[in-house]
Amino acid sequence: MMRSGVAELSAVRGIIGAQGARDTFGDEGDGPTVLLIPGFLAGDASLEPLARHLSAAGYRPLPAGMQRNVDCSERAVARLAERLRELGEPVAVVGHSRGGMLAHVLARRHPELVTGVVTIGAPRRDPLALHPAVLAPALSLGIAGSLGVGGLVRYSCAFGRCCGAFRRDLAAPADPYLPYLAVYSRRDGIVDWRACLDPSGRHVEVRSTHCGMAEDRVTLHVVRDFLDGLAMPPTLAAAA
Questions:
Q1: Total domains, the chain
Q2: Phi/psi zone of residue 153: left (φ > 0), alpha (ψ -120 to 50 degrees), beta?
């Protein structure tokens, strides 16, 4: 992981640069809504390639409304739940990296709001299984948050009582009745790919870097295929 991690450092800077909260992703289909949650340090803009792909397939991609995904996990999940309640109907949720961890907890706590979950390169089994290039800024943000800077993670989010319930929900297996897919790559140079595997075994491997996974051609196909299965009647989905 270390060698591939070094190769991804420039891509990490690109992801961090893709900031900006979105109300919409622009052109949208008139099909089912899909909530997209960006990864750590990134904003909604980082998932624009995925949003364009889904829009072209007829879906309505909905941004998480994140300028940069660095806030306390509990606060982030609460805001995402409120965003979904405003829609008035359950939707599928796709999250990249930390966004996938938020998606998992969101679905466990609010199954009435979620029809299915896709996690992309999300180290759910060990959130700190990160390359030092990403772990270092995470720890720095934790220091700033612990010192009182608003809107940031704190050390208590990872080790204390602040997000203890979040960590328990994150470690819990996915609901067996909820359509759920974990996408991972052994070429991931940012997180340990083994931390991305769902304990229930519902996972698909792709050949991509961590930062490129949310726009990788195969990953986009896998996500769309999963979403198409959600929209398909159960009898036809079983036959497919």
A1: 1
A2: beta
Beta strands in the chain (DSSP E): 33-37, 60-63, 91-96, 114-120, 180-184, 203-205
Residue with tokens 């829609």: 87
Angle at Cα 43 formed by Cα 39 and Cα 47, nearest 5°?
70
92 class by beta-carbon count within 10 Å (0-12 exposed, 13-18 middle, 19+ buried) = buried
Q: Is residue 237 part of a domain?
A: no
| Domain assignment of residue 35, yes or no | yes
**Total-model pTM:** 0.81
CATH of the domain at 125: 3.40.50.1820
Q: CA 185, CA 5: separation in Å to the nearest integer?
A: 13
Query: What secondary structure letter does DSSP report for 28?
Result: -
pLDDT 10s digits, 17-71: 556 666 778 766 778 999 999 998 889 999 999 999 999 999 999 999 998 888 8
Read off the pLDDT of residues 54-63 as tens digits, 9 standing for 90 and up. 999 999 999 9
